[in-house]
Each structure stands twice: as C-alpha cells, then as structure tokens.
Amino acid sequence: MSRGWARAALVGYRWFGAGIYPLLGPYLAIRAAKGKEERSRRNERYGRSRIPRPDGPLVWFHAASVGETTAVVPLINEVRRRNIAVVLTTGTVTSAGVARERLGDTVIHQYVPLDLKPAVSRFLDHWKPDLAIIAESEIWPMTILELGARRTPQVLVNGRLSDRSFARWSKRPSLADALFENLSHVVAQSDLDAERFLALGARPVSVSGNLKVDTTAPPWDAEELARLKEQIGSRNTWAAISTFEGEDEIAAAVHRALYQRHKQLTILVPRHPDRADAIETMLDQRGLKVARRSRGDQIDPSTDVYLGDTIGEMGLYLNLTEIAFVGKSLKGGGGQNPLEPAMLGCAVLSGSNVENFRESYARLLKNGGARYVRDGEMLAKAVHFLLSNPQARQAMAEGGQKTLQDMRGALKATIRALEPYINPLTVKARLLPRENESSESRGGGQW
C-alpha cells in the first residue's frame, strides 16, 4: 500500500464512521443491558459532557482498561501536583471503578468517545486538551488523526505492541506510517517494543520499562481482610485470578484433584465479574459449594470456592493466599499482569501464552518468582507442590520481590520524557489568576 492509498483509506475510514454514527444507539443500548456501559452516561460515548471545561491547561489521559488505568495513576498524580487539570477517559465500567477508587475527585472522568469523527470532534472541541497521553497500545485512527489536525501533542506511554498487532501493522506499513507520524513521542516498555514502534514509523521513541512496576500494590480493606481470614481459619488457600472462559473449569478441576490431600479453599476471581452467574452454575454442576463475594456469603469449612465477583478488590483476594495462578495464559492468550500478585508476596503460576507481559514474566522466571504450567494437570501438580512446601512458596515470593526491585524506575524515565510537554503547562498553570486557580475544577468526575 502506497502512502497515497494509505491516506485514501484513512479518509474512507472517516466517512464510513460518519455514516454509521447515527446507527450506534442500539449497539450502546445492548452493551448497557449487558452491564458493559453505564446507561446514564452513554452520551459520553458520543463525546458529550455536562461538565464544563476547567480554566487553564488541561491534559487528557486515556487508559482503556484496568491495567492501563492503574499504570497511569502515578503519572496523573504528578500532573495534578503541578495544578494542571486532568480529564481521564476509560473504556470499561470496571476501569471506571478503579479510577474512582484510586483518584477520587482529583480528576474529571469520562468514558472514551467512540472512534468516529463526530464523537471525537465533539469531545476535543469541548475539552480542548493541551496534551494527550495515551496508555500502552490504544491506537485509534480517528482520534490520532483529529488530534494531529489540531496540532495537539500526543504521547504514547508504557507503549507496547503484541506479536499479533505488530504483524498486522507490518502488513500495512504506509498506513502505519500515516498514523504513527502523528505521535509526538512514544515511551516504550521494552527495547523490543521500541524497535517495533520505530519500524512502523514512530519518532522519537524512548524506553522506560513497565510503569506497572512503579505503581502501589492493589488496596484492600484491613477489617474485611481480617474478617475473611477468621472465616478461612487454618485452611490452605490458592487463587486463580483474572481468569477467562475455560480457565474457570481448569481451576475447578484443580480443586477437585487436590481436595482430599489439602482440604484447600480455592479463590476464583474472573477477569470479568459479569460471568459470575455462569461460573457459579458450572461449579454447582461439579458438586462444589460456592460462596460469592458480591452476595456477602460467609466462608465456612464446607466452602470449596470463594468467587471474587467484585470490582476493585484484587488486593483483598491476593492477601488471602500465597499462591496465584494468573489467567488468560492457558485459554485466551496474551496473559494478564503478574506484577500485582508478586507485589503482595504470592508465588506466581501461569500458562506460557503471555506475549502481552513477556518481559515481566521473563524477569520473574529468571529470579524464580514465577513458573509456567502447560495445562490443568501441570497446574494441579504445581499447586500441590507449593501447598506442601512453605519454603518453596517463600523462595518464589522473594524472587518476585527481587524482580520488582530490579524493574523499578519506569515512572522517573516516563516523567523525564514528558517534561518537554508538561513543563510549559506547569508555567501556564502558575500564571493563572488566583481566583481562577481557587475555582478551578479539582475533579467533579461524573460517577
């Protein structure tokens, strides 16, 4: 594809989006009915907002889901420390909950507009961001082009490109170049990611490491943790977290295989809590007694599985165990973040399909903080070994802590890369009249 054809394709994408825009109401209604959209806030997906833009400089942060949201929280705190207003967009109800929990009313939260010209233009016309900071791998053509047309600097932080995404973009180099040339800077997670962005036409590109290492551990309610630990008593525990369809069944099979030997409690935390009803039905059919967090069920000696079907409580679940299998690694593929369980002292187990977190796993494996399993049978053997060997669990937990210590520093590197864009806004914020500064929105996010 030549550069001319690439630009023609992007123009076609723009007109196609404008054509289907009026037809998206039923699509969003269906998503709202499934709990994937907040019904009362669907207008935000069209770029509309009832919240006025605050005076002074404003930075737009976009983080698609939970992991990306958590990763950019320290960056947002740095920007807010400089009295610069922040609009944070996320794409899921779950990530909105995490933003509310970790940032409160210090930012304005909105759901990200659909990547269609009418919605994106309306969003940008209202908020007029001075800088756009996008997390990880969110490449939305219309959003990038509209920011570029407005000459708004846009920086991709904690950037990564999976094997699949890189292969797909590599087949369309002119299209990739026409998009990536609009990025003012890419701050990549790893040397491999940096090479990939450079190959696709991004300039300049620097390497920071993974921002997720420099975040704090997931929070938890200490009183609730003590209450649950009292219910569990002296029973052994293990957790299967961030599971995808097919992995819940594997966790159930592991529980049955080990129960006669260990009498353990299995803590099952699906990546998408809206699957909890189906998971509970599956567990019931296998003769397993379930206690659900969302119902406030008590854990008693006969409870087989504690189903963690709530949002924002991963810290609570991980503090109930020292062994964590991290999902989307045996089924689904790509993996989920292994650093949170490592932060909380867990031995990490995972399937090998973890391309989205390749470097994190490589370092954990090198330091003995994680182990790969091939299938459910191998997972059962690994959990059995760790339940039977406290010293092995402790050694893996220490390997995880060493890995985290070795990997830290991404936040400082990212802030250094952002300084040319943030420093002028800092000066601009300081020059605001005091009355504007005192009345400037410190949030008012529509929750």
From TrEMBL:
Pathway: Bacterial outer membrane biogenesis; LPS core biosynthesis. Keywords: Cell membrane, Lipopolysaccharide biosynthesis, Membrane, Transferase. Its main location: membrane. It catalyses: lipid IVA (E. coli) + CMP-3-deoxy-beta-D-manno-octulosonate = alpha-Kdo-(2->6)-lipid IVA (E. coli) + CMP + H(+). Signal peptide: none annotated. Its EC number is 2.4.99.12. InterPro entries: Glycos_transf_N (IPR007507), Glycos_transf_N_sf (IPR038107), Kdotransferase (IPR039901). It comes from the Bacteria. Transmembrane segments: none annotated. One of its GO terms (molecular function) is transferase activity. Residues 41-214 form the 3-deoxy-D-manno-octulosonic-acid transferase N-terminal domain. SUPFAM superfamilies: UDP-Glycosyltransferase/glycogen phosphorylase. It holds the Pfam family Glycos_transf_N. It is found in: Cell membrane. The keyword Membrane applies. Belongs to the glycosyltransferase group 1 family. Involved in lipopolysaccharide (LPS) biosynthesis. Catalyzes the transfer of 3-deoxy-D-manno-octulosonate (Kdo) residue(s) from CMP-Kdo to lipid IV(A), the tetraacyldisaccharide-1,4'-bisphosphate precursor of lipid A. This is 3-deoxy-D-manno-octulosonic acid transferase. It comes from Hoeflea alexandrii. The lineage of its organism: Bacteria, Pseudomonadati, Pseudomonadota, Alphaproteobacteria, Hyphomicrobiales.
